[in-house]
Design a protein that fits this description.
Length: 206
Amino acid sequence: MKSDQSSGREGRPQVSRDSLQSLDEEIRSCNRCPLANGRTKAVPGEGPDRVDILLIGEAPGKDEDLAGRPFVGRAGSILDRCLNDAGIERREVFITNVVKCRPPGNRRPKKDEVEACRPYLKYQIELIQPKVVILMGNAATKAVLDVEGVTSLRGQVFRDMFLVTFHPAAVLRNGNLKEDLVLDLLAARDKAEGSRACHQKREDCA
Ligand code: URA
């Protein structure tokens, strides 16, 4: 079994990374941080094992905690609409969060909680091998890139893979942001399709 050595050194149980399924099972019974005590269901994320586009949000909310699925509440409805407007099928992408259990009162996840969950996100990215990772909001951007300021960073691609955009909940609060979120999803789709075509033709498309 492949496992996460670094998390073992920190005194937390090691995380197996054999497959998305084993990761999923571990997440559902995880006790690596106190968020486990308050959850109804952990929310590992969902989507096919290999996809071109991986979306990362912040944390499950009330609806997600009850369902054990990501983005099924009001933010999920907006995300679904934006994906649709960008011509992306939800069933063709993988959707997950920085932390897999709901923080009390939907507060932002604490640093320790993000660190406890980090191996899961890391191995999801490694196993899925997406062409584009969409970081939705400040929590995802901070967790993955260690930078903040989505308003100024949105639309930018980092390390040729990580695209920053608004969190769907921000669109719920300010409908004017929807157009930008859709434009960013379109850019992600173009990038994923471009790199797939490039790969198929075995050309250097840099
Ligand atoms: N907000 C998130 O960040 N993730 C969800 O799954 C739902 C709402």
